[in-house]
Write a structure and sequence with these properties.
Blueprint lengths: L10 H23 L9 E6 L3 H18 L3 E5 H7 L12 E6 L4 E8 L2 E8 L4 H12 L5 H9 L18 E2 L2 H12 L3 H6 L1 H27 L3 E5 L6 H14 L2 E3 L10 H13 L19
Parallel strand pairs: 1-2, 3-7, 5-6, 7-8
Antiparallel strand pairs: 3-4, 4-5
Helix pairs in contact: 1-2, 3-10, 4-5, 4-6, 5-8, 8-9
């Protein structure tokens, strides 16, 4: 992975890699599907949110392909597509449901009334939980992507070993900057030998502090809205501890939680395709003058 040596995604490198590989990946996907390009009903692309350069590469490629094949064009909201990844295969949540969307760039709690009617009821006021995982992993020198490494190490650790601060949930508002700062100061006060010997306990304690506000917010929302259907989406949806905690919450509340398959947690074409199918059924197409929006919000 070209970004691993930098501890995170480098936007310029990402857009260049997109430009270099987009046709190769598209051609391979079409061949694997066993269909002809002319059999496609429409061409979908991510309008936003996301990295400006990467969004422009995807949109430009999609427009060119749509023109060449004379197919309608569909613009998809990236974060809405993450939520709709829960509707790719059974079992699926029934509308309305609550969805916790957690990734490297977003931390949101969303009320999903219909596929095209979503309201963000809570979000982070500073950093995303996925970003906090990766930054803390980088501080520890664990590599990238850090969230997976922390999750694996935490499985054999004691989550109560070190009391890292758990940000209080202001209804449905999250905050992770304070946890990162506390974690940095903690590591600076310890020797490398101590950190190495207690690596699993440190990771488990950190993970507990990062995940508890998410689960607490879901519990409050389930009670306030009277909804027992809960979904989890985004890259951090692959976290094993978060899945276990949400499963335990729903078991306690008599509800049901839905998880996407691991291949649908990180950014993927299947979720964009699922969102596009809903739009295609409604003939919700866009023109070639459609622009990308790096800060596109859910519901816009």
């Amino acid at each position: 992975m070209i970004h691993s040596g930098y501890g995170g995604v480098v936007p310029e490198m990402a857009s260049r890699e997109h430009q270099k590989n987009i046709w190769i990946v598209t051609e391979q996907a079409i061949q694997n599907s066993g269909i002809n390009k002319k059999d496609l009903d429409a061409i979908a692309f991510t309008k936003g949110p996301g990295l400006p350069g990467s969004l422009m590469v995807g949109a430009s490629f999609a427009k060119g392909l749509a023109m060449a094949l004379d197919k309608p064009l569909i613009a998809v909201n990236h974060m809405e597509a993450h939520i709709l990844s829960l509707l790719i295969k059974e079992p699926m949540p029934a509308f309305p449901f609550l969805c916790l969307v957690v990734s490297g760039g977003h931390t949101m709690l969303v009320l999903v009334k219909q596929w095209n009617e979503m309201t963000v009821i809570g979000s982070t006021k500073d950093d995303a939980v996925g970003e906090a995982f990766d930054k803390c992993a980088k501080i520890m020198g664990l590599g990238y992507p850090g969230g997976k490494i922390i999750d694996d190490l935490a499985k054999t650790g004691n989550e109560k070993a070190f009391p890292f601060p758990v940000a209080k949930v202001e209804k449905y508002r999250f905050s992770y900057s304070g946890v990162k700062t506390s974690f940095l100061y903690f590591l600076q006060s310890k020797t490398p030998e101590f950190i190495q010997e207690n690596q699993s306990d440190i990771c488990a304690s950190l993970q507990f502090a990062l995940l508890k506000p998410l689960v607490d917010a879901c519990e409050i929302a389930m009670e306030e809205y009277g909804i027992k259907e809960l979904g989890l989406a985004g890259g951090v949806a692959a976290n094993s501890s978060l899945r276990k905690r949400l499963q335990a919450l729903c078991d306690q509340k008599g509800g049901r939680v839905y998880f996407p398959d691991f291949e649908y947690c990180t950014d993927n074409a299947a979720m964009i395709g699922r969102a596009a199918c809903f739009k295609w059924e409604q003939k919700d197409f866009c023109g070639l003058d459609e622009t990308t929006e790096p800060r596109l919000a859910i519901g816009s």
